[in-house]
Amino acid sequence: MDTPSSNKASSVAALQAVKQKSGKTYGQIAQEAGLTNVYVAQLLRRQAQLKPETASSLRAALPDLSEELLHEMMQPPMRSYDPNIIQDPTVYRLHEAVMHFGESIKDIINEDFGDGIMSAIDFYCAVDKIKGVDGKDRVVMTFDGKYLPYTEQISEHMVSRLRK
Hints:
Layout: H1 4-22, H2 26-33, H3 37-44, H4 52-61, H5 67-73, H6 89-113, E1 116-131, E2 137-149
Antiparallel strand pairs: 1-2
Helix pairs in contact: 2-3, 2-4
């Protein structure tokens, strides 16, 4: 019996095969499609929904994408993750970095913006490679999220209570 996770796994496998056959990197596909490299990776892992207006540029970058795969990519995805992924050293180190620096990042967000958070929905993310001052490769990750202030819970502003 097919389950949503088995359907997703087979779709991701098919999408990754199209990428591999193209011989292109996420960055190359992103540049051709006018997207960020992380967003392209999300699309090809069914972690983001392909918008109809973007389908033609993605198809131009990956001509072997079938109509069926494009249609599937336009459906809302099951945004999930395998809890075992934390065992991957790259993912673990990213988690470790956020945990290590998170409290300080929160302090700076609160100091500069007020009491609120960074959106993970109205959010852009990119990974870039640069040379450090010592000439060694460095990873630059950009998290670009909309600021969302916490709201004061004033009862007269609660629309659902005004419908009496």
